[in-house]
Design brief:
Strand order of the largest sheet: 2-3-1-4-5
Strand content: 5-15%
Distance between the termini: 21 Å
CATH architecture: 3-Layer(aba) Sandwich
Oligomer: single chain
CATH superfamily: P-loop containing nucleotide triphosphate hydrolases
Shape: globular
Structural class: alpha/beta
CATH class: Alpha Beta
Helix content: 55-70%
Bound molecules: shikimate-3-phosphate
Number of domains: 1
CATH topology: Rossmann fold
Order of helices and strands: EHEHHHEHEHHEH
Largest sheet: 5 strands, parallel
Radius of gyration: 15 Å
């Protein structure tokens, strides 16, 4: 286990976890890690390919393992994929960490991500998909969060500052 619990970023796809995560890590003088990147590196293929080849449940198993490993090995900033909080064991694992939920409204999400074939969950009818995703997940993000930072209308630098202040 790492000596200092990591700062974890959660929130929906496209909210800026990677950008803010890197900026926040720089600001804190610690490393940055992203569980999606870990899965891509380990598997040697993109997340969209894993979804297509093996389906979402297989991806979720990989994700659960990647989160557990990242939190055990890394004491900097760790960004999780948008759906990582769906898993109850992952949510339990987050207890005791500083968890910043980067939030955004549905319309902002639609505007930022649009129709996105690289994001398998948004490949058809993104507005409807976003509404459903947010309804299913908002309370899970809130459950694990020790701080909530709204991102609508804010630059990555402003969001980073707000996240830093909230730690
Ligand atoms: C997903 C979010 C993605 C990626 C996968 C599934 C989700 O990560 O893990 O496409 O279920 O919301 P980002 O939130 O980093 O885009």
């Amino acid at each position: 286990m790492s000596a200092v619990p990591a700062v974890v970023l959660v929130g929906p796809m496209g909210v800026g976890k990677s950008t803010v995560g890197r900026l926040l890590a720089e600001r804190l003088g610690v490393g940055y890690r992203d569980t999606d990147d870990d899965i891509v590196a380990e598997q040697g293929r993109e997340i969209s390919e894993i979804f297509l080849d093996e389906g979402e449940p297989v991806f979720r198993t990989m994700e659960k393992r990647a989160v557990r490993t990242a939190l055990a090995e890394h004491d900097g900033v760790v960004a999780l994929g948008g759906g990582a909080v769906l898993d109850p064991d992952t949510r339990a694992l987050l207890a005791g960490h500083r968890v910043v939920y980067l939030s955004m409204e549905v319309e902002e999400a639609v505007r930022r991500t649009g129709l996105n074939v690289a994001r398998p969950l948004l490949a058809v009818n993104p507005r409807k998909q976003w509404r459903e995703l947010m309804e299913a997940r908002r309370h899970l993000y809130e459950e694990v969060a020790t701080a909530v930072v709204p991102t609508d209308g804010r630059t990555p630098e402003e969001v980073t500052q707000a996240a830093f202040d909230a730690l």
